[in-house]
Specification:
Layout: H1 3-32, H2 42-47, H3 49-62, E1 65-73, E2 79-86, E3 97-104, E4 107-120, E5 123-128, E6 135-144, E7 147-156
Antiparallel strand pairs: 1-2, 2-5, 3-4, 3-6, 4-5, 6-7
Length: 164
Amino acid sequence: MSIQGRIWPWALGTVLALTVAGNLWVMRIANADTSFAVEPDYYRKAVDWDSTMAQRGRNDALGWQLTVESMRLDGAGVASLTVGLRDRAGLPVDGAVVQVAATHNAHAEQIVAGNLAEVTEGRYTGSLAAQRAGIWELRFSVERNGQHFTARLRHDTARDAPTG
């Protein structure tokens, strides 16, 4: 076998090895990107699509409105979150158990969760381990007297920054 005949298998093997190494390098870079995240438990959520739509129907039937009153960062990695919960007539909804899961828009892989306690009728507050200012996606789950309500809101913490 000539020298040229011996080079082809090595050249082909080198090209394949470089392709595998390049793909592994790209995969490593893609997985190290903190601004990218896959929806947690996305397959179960897709399978449960009918129950998600049924929950939207229950939310509409309840007519509750949840609003973010403020989300202030204290500089030490803690955010104080205050929300208002009202019924269809605009009256406060009291005595509810309010849970929140929050993700920063630019760092969606980091989910912080907490419970909000009622401070006045229809007003709930709590703390979250949130270190970044910016846009947050807040997913709420509210339970009261056997009724379940969910809401998904976006809030910009810059709106709540103190002005001086």
